[in-house]
Amino acid sequence: MTHYHIDHIRYAWDIARTFNCRVVASIPESVIIEGSEKPRNIGLLQSLFSFMVRVKPVNVDIKVGDGEVIEGYRTIYAPGHTPGSTAYLKDDLLFSGDAVVEQGGKPALPPRIFTLDMRKAAESFNKLLSLRPRIIYPGHGSPISLGT
Ligand SMILES: [Zn+2]
To answer: Fewest C-beta in 10 Å: which of 66, 84, 91, 102?
Structure first.
């Protein structure tokens, strides 16, 4: 999992149960995904969503630190959108969550309204692109192809 936002974790419990798979998330996001802590400083929109949508907390089986490798996927902490936002790199494929989203076929910053710290988000965005992924699979939008 890349971060705790509802649109990314809402069905995690069902997916983990259906496919009997392990749930992986960063250490800072895990407590929120597991429901033992509430996120801090969430915006009005997020508060409204969390009020309207009930999410079943899911157990995080593997809590990863920055730079750890799990089954060939390297964890890359990419804070800003949320404090513990995390991307996963496998070979030259990047699963960016909302640290990089797609806009018009190109990588873009996450929307300001859903992002806690735009300065950090921009730093993380640049860090992820500097890894020179061939394809980015963003949390929103189509896969982004960055050439050969
Ligand atoms: Zn998000």
So the answer is: 91
CATH number of the domain bearing residue 93: 3.60.15.10
What is the 3 CA–ligand 1 centroid distance (Å)?
7
- Tokens 């250490």 -> residue: 27
Question: What's the CA-to-centroid distance between 142 and ligand 1, angstroms?
Answer: 16
- Inside any domain, residue 80: yes
Tell me, in angstroms, the distance from the centre of ligand 1 to residue 36's CA. 19
Q: Which two tokens stand for residue 18?
A: 């259906």
Q: For residue 148, report the distance from its CA to the centre of ligand 1, in Å.
A: 28
Question: Which residues on adjacent β-strands are paired with residue 135?
Answer: 93, 145
Q: Please tell me the distance between residue 8's alpha carbon and the centre of ligand 1 in angstroms.
A: 7
In a domain, 102, yes or no: yes
From first to last of the 148 residues of the chain, give the pLDDT tens digit.
999 998 899 899 999 999 999 999 999 999 999 988 877 766 656 666 665 667 788 999 999 999 999 999 999 999 999 999 999 999 999 999 999 999 999 999 999 988 999 999 999 999 999 999 999 999 999 999 997 5
Q: Could you list the residue range(s) of the whole structural domain that residue 66 is in?
A: 6-145
Give the burial class of 117: count Cβ atoms within 10 A of its Cβ; 0-12 exposed, 13-18 middle, 19 or more buried.
middle
